[in-house]
Amino acid sequence: MAKFLVNGFGGKRCLSGTLPVRGAKNSVLKAQAASILFKKELRLNNAPLIEDVFRMNNLLEDLGVKIDRIAKRSFKFIPPREFKTALDYEISKSFRSSIVLTGPILAREGVVSFPHPGGCVIGQRPIDVFLDAFKKMGAVVKRGKRVYVIEAKKMKPAEIFLKTPSVTATETLMMTAVLVKGKTVLYNCACEPEIEALAGFLNKAGADIRGAGTHTVSVHGGELLSSGVFDTPPDRIEAGSFAIISALCGKDLKITQCEPRQIRAVLESLRATGVAVEEGRNYILLNARAAFRPITLKTREYPGFPTDLQAPFSIILTQAKGRSLIFETVFEGRLNYLSDIQRMGAEIILCDPHRATIDGPTLLRGREMESPDLRAGLAFLTAGMVAKGDSVIHNVYNIDRGYENIEERLNAVGADIKRVN
Ligand code: EPZ
Question: Taking burial as the number of CB atoms within 10 A of a residue's CB, which of 65, 136, 236, 260 is the most buried?
Answer without folding.
Answer: 236
